[in-house]
Amino acid sequence: MASKGILSGFNRNAVLDSVRTALAAVAALLLARLLKMPEYYWAPISTIVIIQSTIPPHMLGWQRFVGTALGAVLGVVMATFFRPAVVIYAIGIVLCGLLAWALRVGGAYRFAAITLSIVLLIPRARAPWITGWHRFLEVSLGIAVALVVTTVWPLTKKTA
Questions:
Q1: Alpha-helix residue ranges (DSSP H) falling in 36-85
Q2: Which of 15, 43, 70, 92 has a CA that sits 20 to 30 A from residue 149's CA?
């Protein structure tokens, strides 16, 4: 009885998807570090979110871009004019949903709420607008890398 070898059980698409995701994440990481982004880790995280989603990358990239911008702006405004409080946070989350609905970008709501949470809930030594701006730039870089990689190297089928 012949052994098929250790790699015989691997799904080719799963291997390619893993390699593509790793290369994209590392590219985003290196670009963010090269650009001296203070919280560079958001770039590869955003790349992974886009590449590994079952939602088409261009649609999800747009939702994440718009949602991050919306959450950053709303979070900065709220953090500038209000002291941190649970009720302020709750109002911000509700406003994210209402604004996403009003702008007809409902899929962006989750990303707006995440960014608002980061801006409002994580204590920072710097001004809120700096945190919001950095978050927006770092996420946008990750989205751009993911879109380039999925355009240049599309996979024919998504693996579980």
A1: 42-51, 57-81
A2: 70
